[in-house]
Amino acid sequence: MLFVGDDWAEDHHDIEVQDETGRRLAKARFTEGLAGVAQLHELVAQHLDEDEADQVVVGIETDRGPWVLALIAAGYRVFAINPLQVARYRERQSVSGAKSDAADAHALADMVRTDSHQLRSVAGDSDQAEAVKVVARAHKSLIWERTRHAQRLRNVLREFFPAALQAFDDLTAADALELLAKAPDPDAAARLTIAQISAALKHPHRHHASDKARVIRAALRTEQLRQPAAVTTAYAATVRAQVAVIGTLNAQIKTMGAQVEAHFGQHPDAEIYLSQPGMGPILGARVLAEFGDDDHRYADARSRKNYAGTSPITRASGKKKTVLARYVHNNRLIDALGQQAFSALTGSPGARSYYDELRRRGTGHRAALRQLANRLVGILHGCLKTGTVYDEAAAWSHHTHTAAA
């Protein structure tokens, strides 16, 4: 067998090849792209026949990109290793703190040679699942970016125009953006008429637009501390820029959301995901994207829960034992599962009962939601393994019997 460590950068890959004893057979640096992959295959061919590609084990710090796909297509066994694991492994070999790309390639080769049984190989997800991942991640990234710009806008308004924060609850809403674009400073906002404000409120089909318009106008006309005129003009220009960015992000989020639903709807597991409590097409797409659809990736429900980051970890030493939430996890997945758990409280009597019981025991809100999410991941795993949609009675039967006893 050959063990290959691949330390990648944007434009090159540092490679080390070892045999089963850990003896270095070759080291090289290849450029990113088709030529580099071809050179890597030539290097491997110097030590193995073409029909022995399954005897090549590769360690690399990423699980996506055309380079990784090319390695998998060649028949190599590829392990995507967390950079934090590589750093800790490197510290086992040396405490000096020295680091180089070639040394990282050596550490990666060592890891897949000695510890591949404890590492997770790159999942064999379908092309449909990969497509869902691309659009779902892009959609969520746009939402995160909008949140950042909304916070920046909030900070700017707090500095010179705090009345706007009282007038608008949601700075990403279409009506707030339209009015701030028309009147980005206190004087211009004070001149807005009821008719102008009402016209903006009618676009998102708000109820009681006239009453809301009076409340907004009153808030915009309240006396506030002021900045000098020149500074106010500068701040107003900043508000216009942020409003334009948020408006563009709103449009692209809507467009990308339609793409998410379209790609997700074509996946064969979409019906199972949509049957889960608290899960619609957007959340379902996000969860599918992060879990993938490789049937052999998760040996059991516990494995899926551990990957999700919803299951707790135990630290025990002597007489001391603590149970903690997992600190290292997939942020996108844990965010989607948390939203699902919260939504399930109103959509599933079983989920609500399970949450309420945890709260009665003294568990905090966030911890109870995390435990509920962990339970829902187990239910999802069972549905995917059996190919059946969610059933409320079957999903919570064990919990109901335990509570009754």
- Structural class per helix/strand content? alpha/beta
Shape: globular
The share of residues in extended strands comes to 5-15%
Kindly provide the radius of gyration, computed on alpha-carbon positions and rounded to a whole number of angstroms: 27 Å
Main sheet characteristics = 5 strands, mixed
List unreliable stretches of 5+ residues. Answer: none
Q: Based on DSSP secondary structure assignment, what is the total number of beta strands?
A: 7
What is the spatial order of strands in the main beta sheet?
3-2-1-4-5
In sequence order, what are the helices and strands, one letter per element? EEEHEHEHHHHHHHHHHHHEEHHHH
Mean pLDDT across the residues is 91
SS field, number of helical segments: 18
Helical content class: 55-70%
Terminal CA distance: 56 Å
How many domains, in number, for the residues?
3
Summary keywords:
405 residues; alpha/beta; Nucleotidyltransferase, domain 5; Helix Hairpins; 3 domains; 5-stranded mixed β-sheet; two-stranded antiparallel sheet; 18 helices; 10% strand; globular; transposase activity; Transp_IS110-like_N; DNA binding; Transposase; Transpos_IS110
